[in-house]
Specification:
It contains 14 helices and 24 strands. By secondary structure, the chain is an alpha/beta fold.
């Protein structure tokens, strides 16, 4: 059994010794985990040292059950030298524990410190301490009022299946105005909410219901300019909104993983949760009865609006639309709610993000017209053909983005370039191309490496804004690619020059290289153009790994 080093013993003996009895123990967290650490998984143990004479906590730590008795000594050392406020550094006259093993271990570790270590059957001060935590847990309000929990989960399920984030970006704000009747006795403190849908990028899914337009604008402005985690957290907690978020039931999923996408999980693996964010309250993971009614009414009206205008929103999210709905509430009462798009506010919020992006781009000089930062590095890329029936399935599916240039059924199908990656990256890629004015053309242009005399066939995307992006570098004399190019050229002749770019998820699953309809995120019709039409000549691979004009 190891004792403190002689230098540590001399240091501890310099602390004043007070005539107090300290209680120490190590107990499972069980139901008190959330009170100590909101992110804990209820699997650790709590080590605590209390001054029984003064009734104050001197030291406390949450540790893994695998940690040995040394953890108890470390916590005790901090309790003596760096105690929690308002205690002052000191060493006790006596220590009592209820575990024989801990008693013998402490006797060996604390020898020569003039501290008596005794065993007792009960620790009344620590028992009362943990009892207090249990009472806090038992008196915590439920996440949702029991009266409204069922309908709240029902509307959350409806939101998840409706997937409004497949139609609306986070800047497409909807106004939700509650219009109670004269006979409605409820106190509707907030009659207008601003709904922001999250999830188009595949990271976080949910709906924010801002209680004021000012709060929404302030957060967007702050989020666009702040870079440090601390300042972003401050901006987040300054919001004034209710929220519905979706999370994974399985804690093994890491939301910080770039390839993680909640939408790929089964319904049984998704859990909705509600709450509130307020500058004075911070984030609160429960709603009271009045809040639950308001949130339910707003979400139900939002769901009705999405179902009513799904086809129109899939084609155009910029048009002004408005519709009133009658929402039924428990107790056989109804309330009228008007939901409206806010195109001008959407433009304003979009401008905030674009202004920040432009400021960032000003520090980067573009020396060549060909860019290679559009396609995710780990993507699967191939040339192929998509049957016309599959084209129609994508075109008629409101949940898929489809850019049409008027291609008609000719030949065996549409020649396509397939870019397959994770769902979040696929959605982001589709968004970037849409922001570029869509896809204009697909081209293959010759390239060469003057240092190795290697020839390349460079796959290039031309966007509506005229920018050129590299999507593939193929070895010029590779037999597999030569055959794929031969088939590409033949099919493009059959379709009179029409081709397509398919962006899909499922990179790591069974659908790799053969995505199904559920994996397809977007399909962009484009024109196939020749290298002569592009007019760039032979591109050379330079030492900085950028292609320059020959």
């Amino acid at each position: 059994m190891t004792a403190f080093s002689t230098t540590t013993q001399r240091r501890l003996k310099k602390l004043p010794q007070i005539p107090s009895v300290w209680e120490g123990d190590r107990r499972p967290l069980s139901g008190i985990a959330e009170n100590l650490d909101p992110d804990s998984e209820d699997k650790g143990e709590c080590i605590v040292w209390l001054d029984g004479s003064e009734g104050v906590v001197r030291g406390m730590e949450v540790v893994s059950p695998e940690m040995g008795p040394e953890a108890i000594v470390r916590t005790l050392l901090r309790a003596m030298e760096n105690p929690q406020t308002p205690a002052i550094p000191a060493r006790p006259r006596k220590i009592v524990v209820r575990d024989r093993e801990i008693q013998f271990f402490l006797r060996g570790a604390l020898q020569n410190l003039d501290i008596s270590i005794d065993y007792v059957r009960e620790l009344p001060v620590i028992d009362e301490f943990f009892r207090g935590f249990s009472e806090i847990t038992s008196h915590r309000p439920p996440a949702l009022p029991p009266k409204y929990a069922e309908i709240m989960f029902q509307v959350a399920e409806g939101i998840w299946f409706a997937a409004p984030w497949e139609l609306l970006a986070d800047y497409h704000i909807l106004s939700i105005e509650i219009q109670p009747s004269d006979r409605d006795s409820r106190q509707w403190d907030i009659k207008k909410l601003y709904a922001c849908v999250m999830g188009m990028l595949g990271k976080e899914y949910g709906v924010l219901l801002y209680r004021s337009e000012e709060s929404l604008k302030q957060f967007r402005a702050a989020a666009a300019t702040e870079e440090s985690i601390e300042r972003l957290e401050k901006a987040f907690l300054a919001q004034d909104c209710w929220f519905l978020n979706f999370e994974s039931v399985d804690n093994d999923f890491d939301p910080e993983d770039e390839d993680f996408d909640l939408a790929e999980l089964e319904e049984s693996e998704i859990h909705p949760f509600f709450g509130s964010v307020h500058p004075y309250e911070g984030m609160r993971p429960f709603l009271d009865e009045e809040e639950a009614i308001a949130v339910y009414v707003a979400l139900k009206a939002l769901l009705n609006f999405i179902e009513k205008f799904r086809r129109q929103l899939a084609k155009n999210t910029e048009a002004a639309r408005s519709k009133s709905f009658s929402i039924s509430l428990p107790g056989k009462t109804t309330v009228t709610v008007e939901v409206s798009t806010l195109p001008e506010l959407a433009d304003e919020l979009l401008a905030i993000g674009q202004a920040e992006a432009q400021d960032s781009e000003m520090t980067t000089s573009v020396t060549v017209p060909l860019q290679d930062d559009l396609i995710p590095e780990d993507s699967f890329r191939s040339l192929g053909v998509m049957p016309w029936d599959a084209i129609e399935s994508v075109r008629n599916n409101n949940k898929k983005y489809y850019q049409s240039l008027g291609a008609s059924r000719q030949g065996e199908g549409m020649p396509i370039v397939l870019i397959q990656t994770s769902r979040p990256k696929a959605k982001l890629l589709s968004e970037k191309i849409q922001a570029e004015g869509g896809l204009k053309a697909i081209c293959f242009n010759p390239g060469e490496d003057p240092f190795t005399d290697m020839n390349y066939d460079l796959g290039i995307l031309q966007t509506g804004k005229g920018n050129l992006f590299l999507f593939g570098e193929f070895i010029g004399d590779d037999p597999t690619h030569l055959e794929a190019r031969k088939q590409w050229d033949r099919r493009c002749l059959q379709t009179q020059g029409y081709c397509g770019l398919v962006i899909a998820s499922g990179l790591t699953g069974a659908a790799r290289g053969n995505p199904q309809l559920r994996d397809t995120i977007a399909l962009f019709e484009a024109k196939a153009i020749s290298a002569e039409e592009l007019g760039m000549g032979v591109l050379q691979l330079m030492p900085m790994l950028d292609f320059e004009l020959d």
